[in-house]
């Protein structure tokens, strides 16, 4: 799951290249020289919404920054290397995107990587709390309307798979995906798909399982060479562009994200969010769902609660 921090459907990334920028967004990418970070930074560099791109990692970032700086778009690019340069990378940023972390290998679950990746993200978000002001209770800077865990990849996959199944243009399909970002906690609400689609139960069960296990499919297909990077970079960029559009005053911007929630069955839950200039304007909640989807949510809640408790304990025990 990517994280995005901001002061914030469907076709956000696809339309962004023709969107005229109102405010010039300064965006930081932390983990910018790795498998997700590089293509994500490339997509951001190509957008007129971005005026300044700062890149951070513990290795290789200056080279990535120089490489990107040769592309003939308006965004300036600068690379920062190592913890001592992280504060300068973050200063004045409107949005911070964190794709940093260790990728899965065949046979590994997301939970297997929890301690390693949680430590990386915790270190980076602590720096965000100090140097570009919008993060976490431990630093007295927690604003739940401005912190997002990006689950957009599940939506991108759902849109693609449903379009393939029904012979539709994937650019015109929008399937909201609720819950979390691991296995059965990924809950595609195909009953709320736009345009409306009808699937017999066997197809519905099959495509739901495909969406839930799509990340593992990539890990297996890459045979030890990593996990989803290009599709995750696309999904992360799509979310960032929606965020920037909303910050610029565009109305009706909706994206799903795993956030602190009072609209669901546990403390954190992914649902569609109406985004605005100051972040989340409204959590749109779950809405009308089918019995099949209601059962999926019921089965996902215990697993989500365990994951949330584990994360809260991790933060509590941070030094």
UniProtKB/TrEMBL annotation:
Binding locations of NAD(+): 31-37, 117, 232
Domain of life: Eukaryota
Reaction equation(s) it catalyzes: (S)-malate + NAD(+) = oxaloacetate + NADH + H(+)
Protein name: Malate dehydrogenase
Domain Lactate/malate dehydrogenase C-terminal: 151-315
UniProt keyword NAD present: yes
A Pfam family reported for this protein in Swiss-Prot or TrEMBL: Ldh_1_C
Cellular-component GO terms for this entry: mitochondrion
Catalytic residues (positions): 181 (proton acceptor)
Top-level class of the enzyme under EC nomenclature: oxidoreductase
